[in-house]
Amino acid sequence: MNILLFSAEELSASGQLTLTDRRAEHLRKVLKAQAGDDIRVGQINGEMGTARLLDINDERARLEVNLNVEAPPPLDLTLILALPRPKMMRRVIQSTVSLGVKRIYLINSYKVEKSYWQTPWLEASSLRENVLLGLEQGVDTLLPEIHMRKLFKPFVEDELPGIIAGSDAWVAHPTSEAQSPQVNGPLTLAVGPEGGFTPYEVKKLEEIGFKGFTLGKRILRVETVIPALIGKLYL
C-alpha cells in the first residue's frame, strides 16, 4: 500500500477519517505507524494529500486529512483485452490499473473458455477490491472503467469502431512483423489470450482499422505482456 485510499462518505465534516478495516491493520502492523505520523492518502476519484495520525489502537485508527494534490494524469489508452484465465485475473487487473489505464474492455475470444466468464473475480466486489489494490500500488485515486463484452463479433463490428475513433488502433499478435508502435496521441491496444487472437479475429480487427505488431517471437503470459507493452510505450 503506497497510498491509503478512502471514499468521500468516510470523511467527516471536520476532515477526520476513522478506519477499522485492513487499512488500519496495515498502518499498525506493516507501517508500524504511531500518533503524529503523516500518511500519504487519497480520496477515491479525488485529490491526494497527507493525513496526520491522531491515534491508533488494536481496533481503529483516526486521522486528520489534508488534500491538496491532483491525481496523476491517466494514460490516453484504451485496452481491449481477451478475458484472462481466472487465476490470472487478479494480477492482471491490479497491474493494469497500477500503470494508469482507465478504460478496459474484457472481451471474448475463441481461445477464451466459457467457464472463465463464471469466475467470481468478475463480480463487482472483487473487481473493485483489485482495482483499489492497483490504485494503492500506483499511487492514484481515479477509478477505471471496466466493461465486459461476451460476444466477439458484435462487439468488433458494432461497438469497437466507435471506441477507436480518433485513436491509433493496434493489435498485439505474435505472428505480426511490425514492431511496437510509437505513441503520438490516443491509443487503443488489443491484446489476445495466450497464443494470440485467431487469424479470423485478427482479420476482423484489421477490417475496422487495427494494425498488427509484435513484441517478439516468444509466447508470453498476459500478465507479462501488459506491463511490458505499457512500459515500452509510455514509461
TrEMBL record:
GO biological process, one term: rRNA base methylation
GO molecular function per UniProt: rRNA (uridine-N3-)-methyltransferase activity
Keywords on record: Cytoplasm, Methyltransferase, rRNA processing, S-adenosyl-L-methionine, Transferase
Region forming the signal peptide: none
Domain of life: Bacteria
Compartments, as annotated in UniProt: Cytoplasm
Pfam families on file: Methyltrans_RNA (PF04452), PUA_4 (PF20260)
Domain Ribosomal RNA small subunit methyltransferase E PUA-like: 19-65
Principal localisation: cytoplasm
Enzyme class: transferase
Protein family per UniProt: Belongs to the RNA methyltransferase RsmE family.
Designated name of the protein: Ribosomal RNA small subunit methyltransferase E
Organism annotation: Hahella chejuensis (strain KCTC 2396)
